[in-house]
Amino acid sequence: MADPFLKVQDLKIHFPTDDGLVRSVDGLTFSLERGKTLGIVGESGSGKSVTSLGILGLHNKRNAQVSGEIWLDNQELVNASPEDVRKLRGQKMAMIFQDPLSAMHPFYTVGHQIIEAYRVHHNVSKKVARKHAIEMLNRVGIPQPDRRVDDYPHQFSGGMRQRAMIAMALSCDPELLIADEPTTALDVTVQAQILDLMHDLQQEFNSALIIITHDLGVVAELADDILVMYGGKAIEQGPAQTIFEAPEHPYTWGLLGSMPRMDRPVADRLMPIPGSPPSLINLPSGCAFHPRCAYEPQTGGLGTTMVPELTEAGGGHRVRCHLPSTERRRIWAEEIKPKLEAGQ
């Protein structure tokens, strides 16, 4: 069996600070095939964006401790030289950053920035690169691209800046595209257009796609697999259909319960997850989620004393929880799912 296009093995990304060691990513393992989409979900501070920056080699090794393995098309990146990783960025892997206004340089035109990204990896003239930039802006739905190519980022609306970021990221036809909160701060109509556009371009280039978000609704239609992160660790991962139809971790139940749905009765209130995400410097003992978990008393004390392992639940579905799988499935079927379907 061929190796996956992207394989992340026991990835750890820690940041030493005056207050202690920030364990932003702590032993993360996953893989992704060409043409497939992985959705990484979780609350702010769970380690999603730090993971994506680690894959692209964008952490400063002087203030970040990065260990583990990241294999991209059988090339290891963690121990590769910065120059080797830089050559891969843009052509082999690219990223749509969370905030296109701050990610794009305000001093240069949108076209200039796309042209520069293209010429780094292609030995072409400025004229050829400019033509390519106009084609990319047209492909992502920017009106009058031959004129807007000379506009500055502040002259674009939020949705158009996001499209321009996608055009820049896709200008060299990357084989791995990471989209970090690609629809944040966009209205729902533009969100749908952006997600459709990313799906169409993925199909065209057969690229591997990672969508990072806190919103399970964003990945519901796009993702083939879902990775749920909490406190720097994967707490549940598996096929998207399984995660939506038969999740087994209480945190995932909470994410589903706090997501507005159009296919069920309108509830008076959503079902929020109590408490706040943990500090990555002083994680709770045992399971990091136990202070917010209503089912911790059923673990016989393990929830507060022992870190649970990520164990196989069948069919590629893995869960990090002390509750037995049979009990998790019973709770979902008898308690959680009926409430969600009733909109309570």
UniProtKB/TrEMBL annotation:
Q: Which GO terms describe its molecular function?
A: ATP binding; ATP hydrolysis activity
Q: Where in the cell is it found?
A: Cell membrane
Q: Which domain of life is it from?
A: Bacteria
ABC transporter domain ranges (all copies): 6-256
- Topology relative to the membrane: Peripheral membrane protein
Q: Does the keyword Magnesium apply?
A: no
Principal subcellular localization: membrane
One family name in Pfam for this protein: oligo_HPY
Sorted keywords for this record are: ATP-binding, Cell membrane, Membrane, Nucleotide-binding, Transport
Q: Which residues form the signal peptide?
A: none
- Asked whether the keyword ATP-binding is assigned, the reply is yes
Question: Where do transmembrane segments lie in this chain?
Answer: none
One GO term under biological process is:
peptide transport
Family membership, please give it: Belongs to the ABC transporter superfamily.
Q: Which NCBIfam families match?
A: oligo_HPY
Q: What is this protein called?
A: Peptide ABC transporter ATPase
Please give the organism: Actinoplanes utahensis
Lineage summary: Bacteria, Bacillati, Actinomycetota, Actinomycetes, Micromonosporales
